[in-house]
Amino acid sequence: MSIDYSQYQRSSPAPVKKNNLYPLQQRMLLWGFILAIFALLLQDWVVGTAIFALFAFVGASWRSDMPPVLSACIAYQWISACAGYIYFIDVGYFPGGANPGSAAWSLIISLIGFGAIITGYRIGFAVFRKRITSKTMSQPATYSVKRLLWMTIVAFGIQYFFEVAPKQIWFGGAQIVENLLTIRFIPLFVLSVAVFERKKNYTHLVIAALWVIGPQLLTGFAKFKEILLVILIAALVQWRPWVRSAQQTRQNRRTLMFGVIGFFATLVLGLIWSGGLKSQWRDEIWNKDNVTTPVEKLVRFTEITSKVINEFDLSFASEELVGRVSSGELYFSLVVDRVPDVVPNEDGELFKKALLNAVQPRFLFPEKANLGGDSWLVKKYTGLYVAGDESETSVGLGYMAEFYIDFGVTGVIVLCMFWGFVGSVSIAMFARVSPSREIFFALVIVCLTGYFMSFDGSFIKLFAGYVQRMLILTAALFFFGSYIHRWMTADSMRG
User: Over the stretch 337-353, which tens digit does the pLDDT of each residue have?
Assistant: First the structure.
């Protein structure tokens, strides 16, 4: 069964004009202004500013010729930066009863940082415009849904084997292998786009999603949000409100409905996971006395899920979920309280650590000191005692807090622009080596969802990880991209 992307190509913007690349800018500014007025009346000016900024960010980052992955990543970070403060305004206290510090000011700084990231991307997109648009406006490929499904199953099967294999057998090359294994998302994304484009073969996508998410649930580390986000982005590729045809209008309504349902479904799953399922399930499977077969684990997971749903407390689950996603916001607010009044600015020391970590990959420098967890950053700059290396725990401070510690607000603006420009450089490199537009989109999604969704991640590790992944994937696609493309095409295997 082959997939014809000609309809997608016809509805893509034909002439590449600068003012056509971001067709949602004005509309999002208008909607953001209207909703900000309501937020200003019902809550306060900080929430109103945050609402307006969110819509402005989406409009300024959603290119008509690319999937809205950057918009999705910024929106996800926006939730992490704003959820705790909004909860504080509505409920009267920060999740967990923590002292939020200078929450309003740290939130405003975060919004400025998001704007700087998008500015960095836009500068890079302008510099590499010809290279990127030559790929985004290229003719779509034709792929086999059945082959994409089997490739997804095989690729994630290899990844599962690597996860259970001792890291010592890779002789210091574990990071290389892990980055190479991110190629497994290519067939998953292309399969998702193919299914939503064709409006059939949804069973293939469901099977692939269950195969990808299921084993992760059995390990206790349910990183399902990245998978669900990839599928949601693939669906949003079909949402083009700037196209006025009757057929596209109907498609926009269906896609918008799917997006809303998908968002609330993810929210419900997050509430259930945070509302007791995570703690009870981890207690069950991490207890060595309860080690069982995968089938027994699946049965036990179903029983615990049923129990959690029956005992579900929405208030408790909401506070747990908001507390989890807003930890970076809390720590940033405490950093703003203490730096530079109590703890002086580092004048670039943290950024220097990030650069050194990036240029000294462990597979080339096996004697490089282990960075350990990130909890020491939280302890030193917030004054809070949190679990650290002594209990094999790492608590993230957040990259914007690190930028602020180095150079204050100026550091947040300049380094966020730098971070965004680095992202645009990787996109240009992927455009150079990708054998098709769909593979290019998949590579962009793999890198951005892996590193630009994290608000509480340490830039010391984020930057090195992103650069390494960018270089490894670029090299892999340069040498093997044509083979991957051939394996995915319908001409290689019809049916």
Answer: 999 999 999 999 999 99
